[in-house]
Write a structure and sequence with these properties.
Mean pLDDT: 98
Number of strands: 4
Oligomer: single chain
Order of helices and strands: EHEEEHHHHHHHHH
Largest sheet: 4 strands, mixed
Helix content: 40-55%
Distance between the termini: 37 Å
Length: 230
């Protein structure tokens, strides 16, 4: 049975951009499962599956509806144990949970600032109005003022990646010898930025950038199938 995967897009339906949806897309590819993306815009999200969640991703697998990217990964691992593992055991699940928290607290705050006006520009009129109102309420100032601060914080952001940079000197993937869901968590954050804005978060010679390029090639180039922002 085909899994329905609710994914987030802006005015261009060919450019899904949500970091959390990208985690799930890569997890579905990793598992080799048959799925169909159902594309939604921001103001449509509360209507998905009868209002099961205020955010996406959400999947429907038969009669089961699961929101939240990490919960979806756990479900896929349990429901399809014969397919390649996303965690390689309970230790990998705990490790991925740490990586998720690190990504949410370290990567997302800066990327949301650096890409904010670009993300706004990706929306149609109705969704742009919603995006501006909700994000300006969150940040307490105009979008343009928020993004204008990104240059001043860029070096600090790059320095914050040193634990990841150092770890990649010991192993090729966050998951170890092969990519696991932990890799897709960080990939999702950087893919979010790549699709939204041409602003250069990473120096080309950064080992994190090299790892990210390899992630883009995974699963037949799934990540690279969406062009970077021009």
């Amino acid at each position: 049975m085909t899994i329905l995967f609710y994914d987030l897009v802006g005015s261009d339906a060919a450019r899904p951009f949500s970091p959390h949806c990208w985690k799930v897309a890569m997890a579905l590819e990793h598992k080799g499962l048959d799925y169909r993306a159902v594309l939604k815009r921001l103001v449509e999200v509360p209507e998905i599956e009868g209002g099961v969640s205020k955010t996406i991703p959400v999947i429907r697998d038969g009669d089961k509806v699961i929101p939240d990217s990490f919960a979806i990964a756990l479900y896929l691992e349990e429901a399809y144990p014969e397919q390649p593992s996303l965690f390689e055991g309970p230790g990998g699940m705990a490790h991925a949970r740490f990586i998720e928290r690190w990504s949410q607290l370290t990567l997302h705050p800066y990327i949301s600032v650096a890409a904010l006006t670009a993300l706004h520009a990706m929306q149609d009129d109705e969704n742009a109005a919603y995006f501006r109102k909700s994000r300006e309420a969150r940040f307490g100032r105009p979008l343009e003022e928020v993004t204008a601060s990104r240059d001043a914080s860029l070096s600090s952001f790059r320095a914050s990646l040193e634990p990841l940079r150092s770890m990649l000197s010991y192993q090729p993937w966050i998951g170890g010898e092969q990519p696991l869901f932990a890799d897709y968590i960080v990939f999702g954050a950087l893919q979010w930025a790549r699709i939204a804005t041409p602003y250069q978060l990473l120096e080309a010679a950064d080992p994190v950038a090299e790892w990210f390029e390899r992630c883009l090639d995974l699963h037949g180039g799934k990540g690279r199938s969406i062009a970077a922002a021009a």
